[in-house]
Design a protein that fits this description.
By secondary structure, the protein is α+β, with helices and mostly antiparallel strands. The strands form 6 sheets. A 6-stranded antiparallel beta sheet has the order 9-10-14-15-16-13, covered by helices on one side. The longest helix has 21 residues.
């Protein structure tokens, strides 16, 4: 309902209804900043109204670029009508500027970037202690990017049509000032931190502030630091992805700071939003659960007879080994393995464990045609641990021979067998399994390969300092996991780690990250 209300107000100033652009048949239409900015504003305001209806109340507001206008509206500085007019004018005037220019994110501090700026380039954003975006004349921006690439720093050109927050924005400022001057402004009802100054906002009610905000750098890192210094420990990002949530982590210094994203690209929207709400709740934020469950048929139940202490009761599943040393064995201290036996005659080893959906629930997030399949990366993990046991630092080769399907009930026994070393120190490795309740059946070989004392030198042709790789084209990951699911590959939340991908000829490049709150402890 909130999205309908905001979109209807924006539509009064747009040539095409916003909803037609956001969910229309032309996916490129939303790339135009004249529609991208209103769309961002609409989504952010609608998300704010939704969580507000569930009792989430901000102590401090921070907005990034167009997000600062959304923050100003929900803080009461601008009415919806005036905010919509200003947002549309901002996007339309920027769209009318000549295309060109460039924006490049560089892995560097602001102090490192300032000396290499040119007349046509300025800092567009300071997102973290070592995360700066430069913007302006294309050739000069790319030259600065190349400068930091040569220093071994990560750089990334942003996919934008214009060089925002740069000198190239100046031709639109007078026209934007004329629109801003006709609007009404009020004092903010909620404290806010300016991303122009990085300090508490004092002049959001000034038209001139919003004119300068178009040109000025977005000092997001400073704003996060100021919010933290004022006592903020819980940060909720209201937008179409979790980019700012990740950037904030670079700045935050306090232990236990809670970060949550209302939406994440490529993930189910309702699940992601409710998960963020739950994370706020367990960290101590007040949620109006009566409002959340209104009309759902949910009912209250009696609580236990002791008071809640807001502690985490559930424990991570571990492999129960008992006192294996009493039997002359050792425990490998690995989440998937329980016992290791060193072989006296060959110097090899046998590592054993038990795999089951009940013991490792995250495995249920990896299915093919409805069956839970132990992932290929899992075999690599077992081989790596086996190599560590016998002093081999590299898995030189590993070939998968048969899939390992986990049963709905019970589990499978796993053996990782490492052979004797040859003249070069290499050892064979073989991974077998057998249903735990069928000891009379033969073991199934799932993977075999070679462990080596040291890793071979990486071949030439890939320069990790340049990212994305030069000449690579970004791929649209929208609906990727849904498409895979239609083909029978079911990847649950733990396995939805693909965040970005590029293609260069026949080569594919990707960025993969563990989802938030995934604990990799104990894994190689």
């Amino acid at each position: 309902a909130a999205l309908d209300e905001v979109a209807a107000e924006l539509d009064r100033h747009l040539d095409q209804p916003l909803r037609e652009v956001m969910w229309g048949e032309d996916p490129d239409a939303l790339n135009a900043t004249s529609y991208a900015q209103p769309a961002l504003f609409a989504v952010e305001v609608a998300l704010f109204r939704l969580v507000e209806a569930w009792g989430v109340r901000p102590d401090v507001l921070v907005g990034h670029s167009i997000g600062e206008l959304a923050a100003a509206h929900v803080a009461g500085v601008l009415s919806l009508a005036d905010a919509a007019r200003l947002v549309v004018a901002r996007g339309r005037l920027m769209q009318a500027l000549p295309e060109g220019g460039a924006m490049v994110a560089v892995q560097a501090s602001e102090d490192e970037v300032l000396p290499v700026l040119t007349e046509g380039v300025s800092i567009a954003a300071v997102n973290g202690p070592r995360s700066v975006v430069v913007s302006g004349v294309e050739g000069e921006v790319l030259a600065i990017g190349e400068h930091f690439t040569a220093l071994g720093r990560k750089t990334s050109r942003l996919s934008v049509s214009h060089a925002f927050h740069s000198p190239l924005m100046e031709p639109m400022l007078d026209d934007f000032r004329a629109v801003a001057a006709e609007l009404s402004y009020a004092e903010p009802r909620v404290p806010a931190v300016s991303t122009v100054t990085g300090e508490p906002a004092t002049d959001w009610q000034s038209p001139e502030y919003w004119v300068g905000q178009v040109r000025a750098a977005v000092r997001f890192s400073d704003a996060v630091r100021t919010a933290e210094e004022s006592g903020v420990r819980t940060f909720l990002e209201l937008g179409p992805d979790g980019v700012l949530t990740a950037l904030a982590q670079q700045t935050l210094t306090s232990d236990g700071a809670v970060r949550a994203s209302a939406l994440r690209k490529g993930r189910p929207e309702a699940e992601t939003l409710v998960a963020a709400l739950g994370r706020l709740h367990v960290s101590g934020s007040d949620i109006d659960w009566n409002a959340y469950f209104e009309g759902s048929g949910a009912r209250r139940v009696d609580l236990p007879t002791y008071p809640f202490q807001r502690r985490r009761y559930w424990v991570d599943a571990v492999t129960a080994t008992g006192n294996v040393s009493a039997m002359g064995l050792t425990a490998p201290q690995h989440p998937l393995l329980g016992v290791v036996v060193s072989l006296a005659d060959s110097g090899g080893a046998v590592l054993t464990g038990r795999l089951a959906v009940t013991a490792q629930p995250w495995l249920a997030d990896h299915t093919v045609k409805g069956a839970v399949l132990f992932p290929g990366a899992g075999f690599v993990e077992l081989a790596v641990r086996a190599g560590d046991q016998v002093g081999c630092g590299a898995v030189e080769e590993l070939a998968l021979q048969a899939p390992l399907v986990l049963p709905e009930r019970g589990g499978v026994a796993v053996q990782v067998v490492v052979g004797a070393a040859d003249e070069s120190g290499r050892r064979s490795v073989r991974i077998h399994s057998r249903a735990e309740d069928q000891a009379d059946l033969p073991w199934v070989l799932h993977a075999d390969g070679v462990l080596a004392p040291e890793a071979a030198e990486v071949g030439a042709g890939f320069e990790s300092a340049v990212w994305p790789p030069a000449g690579a084209t970004a791929l649209d990951l929208g609906g990727a996991y849904e498409t895979l699911a239609e083909r029978g590959f079911g990847y649950g939340p733990v396995f939805q780690g693909l965040t970005a991908a590029w293609r260069r000829g026949e080569e594919l490049y990707a960025e993969v990250a563990l989802p938030e709150e995934t604990d990799p402890k104990g894994f190689g």
